[in-house]
Amino acid sequence: MHTNSVPDPQQPQELLRVCRIGKAQGLKGEVSVELYTDDPHARFAPGEVLYARESAADALRPYTVAAARTFKNRWYVRFEGVDDRNAAEALRNTVLYGEPQELDDDEFYPKDLLGLEVYLESEVSAANADDAPEGAGFEFTDLGKVVDVIEGAQWLLKIRMPNREAFLLPFVEALVPEVNLEEGYLTVDPPGGLVPGIGEPDIADTADSVGAAPPSA
């Protein structure tokens, strides 16, 4: 995505956080960056344009990437027009945004996941199976909704259950096999104990079994 145009802040355009600028590096305007993107190679390619929000009327200031490099798992970027250490220091703590990129079918933006209903994969698979009886009414266990996406090396979904209790679930295919944006839900296949009340032994049943007499021979 190579463009020098500035998005119109009056248009319903959603920009995505890419990075926060850190310390200046050296004397020629290079800065370290704290990543919010999982695709830094694309975001920091020379010629890519990122934007800083300015306080006045939510105006946008463009910054064009001149060069970027990595060292010990850190990214360092130089922007056009930022040519010395003083200019680089002036940008410290600035958050830069980028325009949405085209995603693969199995990729999502955090905002896409917010509000999705959460169901058990086993129940949804049974309802969609070829041998499922036609016209059968299936009721899915309501595990709640996605209320937050915690970004990092591995995303975490924060899911709030109907009883207001919340839990965190790593957003990986093994645990979240299906995301259906069209129908507004995702499915989860958690191991026992990860989701409160799912896959845990029933306390009452356990107590009953402790006091029960052994079966007769």
TrEMBL record:
Query: What keywords would UniProt list here?
Result: Chaperone, Cytoplasm, Ribosome biogenesis, rRNA processing
Q: Where in the cell is it found?
A: Cytoplasm
Residue intervals of the RimM N-terminal domain = 18-97
**Which intervals of the chain are annotated as region Disordered?**
198-217
Pfam families linked to this entry: PRC_RimM (PF24986), RimM (PF01782)
Q: Which residues form the Ribosome maturation factor RimM PRC barrel domain?
A: 133-194
For biological process, the GO terms are: ribosomal small subunit biogenesis; rRNA processing
InterPro entries cross-referenced by the UniProt entry? PRC_barrel-like_sf, PRC_RimM, RimM, RimM_N, RimM_N_sf, Transl_B-barrel_sf
A molecular function (GO) held by this record is: ribosome binding
- Provide one Gene Ontology cellular component: ribosome
Q: Reproduce the free-text note on domains from the UniProt record.
A: The PRC barrel domain binds ribosomal protein uS19.
Q: What does this protein do?
A: An accessory protein needed during the final step in the assembly of 30S ribosomal subunit, possibly for assembly of the head region. Essential for efficient processing of 16S rRNA. May be needed both before and after RbfA during the maturation of 16S rRNA. It has affinity for free ribosomal 30S subunits but not for 70S ribosomes.
Spell out the family assignment given in the record's similarity comment. Belongs to the RimM family.
Relate the assembly described in the record: Binds ribosomal protein uS19.
The molecule here is called Ribosome maturation factor RimM
